[in-house]
Each structure stands twice: as structure tokens, then as C-alpha cells.
Design brief:
Layout (H helix, E strand, L loop, with lengths): L6 H13 L3 H12 L3 E6 L7 H5 L4 E8 L2 H12 L6 E5 L17 H7 L3 E7 L8 H11 E12 L5 H12 L5 H12 L9 H11 L2 E6 L7 E7 L1
Parallel strand pairs: 1-2, 1-4, 2-3, 4-5
Antiparallel strand pairs: 5-7, 6-7
């Protein structure tokens, strides 16, 4: 698969992305954050918009975000500095080259890790999958970064997503936000990229199961049925 988006796209989008939070995005972020626990890994974290809600969860001990965009990483680190109550960090890395520092991937033995209780307790990836160059490779990397039985929340657009309608609705609440016009224009550009992956729920479930995940919950209740939401277990 060819690369759908270059880093420059995410670098340019980073400021507007952090500055604008439509209510539907807020609802999703709060729902994902509410069930987080322990040591949390956010795969494709962008500017870590969900981090304040994750860190406010009393069941969470620490947060690690991973992203490959230098500007997203820069803003994510600034964002975390505003919420210093719990340990947190941002790793600049492509997900398929992931090294969290938890263990050495080249010598990783999942059976041994199970006994040593190594890895993230909870993982999430929200609206990142559609830009992945190699979904199978990245799902494998995420699976190996999680503790056995850890939860992983995977959220990504399906073919029903109507970005124009979502943005029109968001404009009614955010029209006074000075970054909204940039947020709107860049989301439309991102949506119009023909190389972006839109995937049916059944195919996404098959990919998750083939990686080794167990499906706990699957639905399309967010973004007016425009998102696939999977709650998986490693």
C-alpha cells in the first residue's frame, strides 16, 4: 500500500487539531478514557488530545503517546506539561518501528513477558488506522506492546462517515474558534485523500482476530455511525 499521507500533512494540521474539539469528538474521547487503566499506550496519539481525560481517570497510573509527526509530538509534549499530576511521555516514532522502552522488540518473547507482566495495561488508537501504510504490521506491533489480556480500543472511519455533515454540525458550536476554519479545511482535505483506508467492520474484526486479539465489543455508535469501534483483548 502506498503512503496515504506525508508527515507534512500532520505537521500542518497539528495546531488546529489540538485547538478544536467538536462535541462528538469530546464524547468519544471521554468514553475511551473512562475505561482506561494502569499503564496506557496511545498509538498514533497526535497532539494527545485525549490525554487530559486519560490522566484524570483514577484507575490510570501513567500515559505514553506515540506519533511520527514532529509537530504533533511537539504539541503533545507541551499539552502533557499542562497536566503534570501523573507520569506521562511522548515517543516520536512510526508505529511499525515502535520501541517504547518497555522491552527490546528484537528479543521479545510474549510467553516470557506474560510471566514478567511486561507491557501496556491498556492501549488505544483513535482515528489513526486509516493512515497506516501497513495495518497488519502495525497491529502486530501494538499487540506485542500490550500485556496479555490488556484491553485495546481501536476506532477508525468506515464507509458511512460523512465528514461534511459532521463539520457543518461542529461549525454551529465552534464558529467563534479562530482555528475552526483551518480545522475544517484540513479535515476535508484529509477526507478527500483517495488512498486513505475506509474499512468495513467485518474486515476490521477479521484483521484484529488474525493478529491474536479477542473481540469484546464492536459497534458504530460514534460519529453518527461513521466510526468502527472495537474493544479488543490481547
Amino acid at each position: 500500500m502506498s503512503v496515504a499521507y506525508k508527515k507534512a500533512v500532520w505537521d500542518e494540521y497539528s495546531t488546529a487539531f489540538l485547538a478544536v474539539m467538536p462535541s462528538k469528538m469530546l464524547t468519544l474521547n471521554k468514553a475511551v478514557a473512562a475505561i482506561a487503566t494502569g499503564n496506557v499506550g496511545d498509538f498514533g496519539c497526535g497532539a494527545a488530545k485525549i490525554a487530559p481525560f486519560i490522566l484524570n481517570n483514577p484507575n490510570v497510573e501513567q500515559y505514553t503517546g506515540i506519533d511520527s509527526s514532529p509537530e504533533m509530538v511537539k504539541l503533545a509534549r507541551w499539552h502533557l506539561e499542562q497536566f503534570p499530576d501523573k507520569p506521562s511521555k511522548i515517543i516520536e516514532s512510526k508505529l511499525e518501528c515502535l520501541d517504547t522502552g518497555i522491552y527490546d522488540f528484537e528479543t521479545f518473547d510474549r510467553t516470557e513477558a506474560k510471566h514478567k507482566n511486561i507491557g501496556f495495561d491498556y492501549g488505544l488508537s483513535i482515528n489513526s488506522y486509516y493512515a497506516w501504510e501497513s495495518p497488519k504490521t502495525i497491529l502486530d506491533c501494538i499487540y506485542n506492546a500490550l500485556k496479555p489480556q490488556a484491553s485495546f480500543i481501536l476506532v477508525t472511519p468506515n464507509h458511512q462517515l460523512d465528514m461534511v455533515a459532521l463539520l457543518d454540525e461542529a461549525e454551529r458550536e465552534l464558529v467563534a474558534n479562530p482555528y475552526f476554519e483551518s480545522f475544517k479545511a484540513q479535515n476535508i482535505d484529509i477526507e478527500n485523500n483517495k488512498k486513505a483506508v475506509r474499512i468495513d467492520m467485518d474486515e476490521l474484526i477479521d484483521q484484529a482476530r488474525n493478529t491474536g486479539f479477542k473481540v469484546i465489543e464492536a459497534h458504530q455508535r460514534f460519529y453518527d455511525q461513521g466510526l468502527n469501534y472495537l474493544h479488543l483483548k490481547a
